[in-house]
Predict the 3D structure of the following.
Amino acid sequence: MSVGIEQLAVYVPPSVLSLDELAAARGVPPEKFREGLGVREMAIAPPCEDVVTLAASAGARALRASRVDPGDIGMLLVATETGVDHAKPVSIFVHELLGIGRQCRVYELKHACYAGTAALMSAADWVRAGGTRPRRALVIAADIARYAIGSPGEPTQGAGAVAMVIGREPWSLVLGEESGTYAGNVYDFWRPLGRREALVDGKYSVECYLEALAGAFRAYRTLERPALGTDEPLSGRLARFLYHTPFPKMAAKAHRRLLEIDWSGTTLAGDRLEEAIVASYRDAVAPGLEAVARVGNTYTASLYLCLAALLEREGPRLAGQRLGLFSYGSGCCAEFFTGLVPSGVAVQAGVAELLRERTTIDVATYERLVREGDSGGEPPPGFTGEFVFRGVRDERREYARLAPALAA
Ligand code: HMG
């Protein structure tokens, strides 16, 4: 039975900071951010947005695009590491804001940047377990990436959400049924209770990511069907590779590691290795990184932002071909899996339109917004979200849906 992503929709906040400007303000050569990390801009959430409004705005777009009645959603999963309460899940606020029915399994998932994949796989398994029953799930990955001002992680912040309708009519991506997984307890990135900004052992986190990639990819290679021939590279069967992308240079490092494993023992392992890695990255990875270079790290939504942008831009050209996807969440858990782009794919995830509509802010405004945090309030001019966080009253968070004229 085919199960997978029926529709995807993205939402990113309307304010954007140029990383050339941030580099100038921090006394860093702009090439360090542009080439060293591969980042160009980062999305900044205004005070009236938190992870609930990001998730709800993406969810509303996905439901509209798929023409699914909210009452037909039997499972709503919101994956995030930017939770707003220690007990009450982000997903139940989203459930109300989207008008989803009472007969629904609703919960929030957390495992750093891996939770979106955990949610996707849980939803796909739930749809498969339903047999011929028409089950549909809504999976939303949403996050606001925050590091301390002036820290090495600062240029790798970002914010956004990706919503995916999961069901038995996967018009956007048919999920493969096998996954290579890898897990281990490491302290590479974490956010102790009560802290807004993450703590990170930056260089170590890159090593942990690459080790987890190697583990998950090796595990997947043994599960591929039909089985790989002796010395046959898996990459020959995959048209594109999408990676969890905290910053685009990380995807370049990941692809290099993957190919070194995949090509070891083949003729490509010799003198031509370097040239072949560069060509493979250029053709099979770089075209999928444009959006993430302009939004920044969206933590658990990052892999799915890459997927949405790729399918929106190149879906029809990739029809009938398979993609390789790698998800990494610090701490850590990782998964390598594949998906088939179906014929007739037509994804309008809203990425190009949202990036076009953004308002550029300067460094002083960015620093003010960071200080204010998600304190609630009125939407700024040019706001493209559909929901706002009004603030906290009597220890309770209050949200509102905007009048249709204000919403995109
Ligand atoms: P840094 O201090 O900028 O490191 O921190 P750097 O000085 O090594 O510079 C970075 C790159 O810029 C290097 O390239 C330099 O050579 C280059 P590389 O050697 O890596 O190829 N460079 C220049 N290039 C051109 N012109 C120049 C120039 N100067 C230097 N003038 C670090 C980088 C990633 C550590 C930092 O940004 C950080 O801590 N980021 C946050 C952590 C992170 O993103 N880790 C990634 C793996 S873990 C993960 O992905 C999970 C995560 O998303 C969280 C979750 O799971 O929830 C983070």
About this structure: The CA atoms of residues 129 and 135 lie 9 Å apart. The first helix runs from residue 19 to 26.
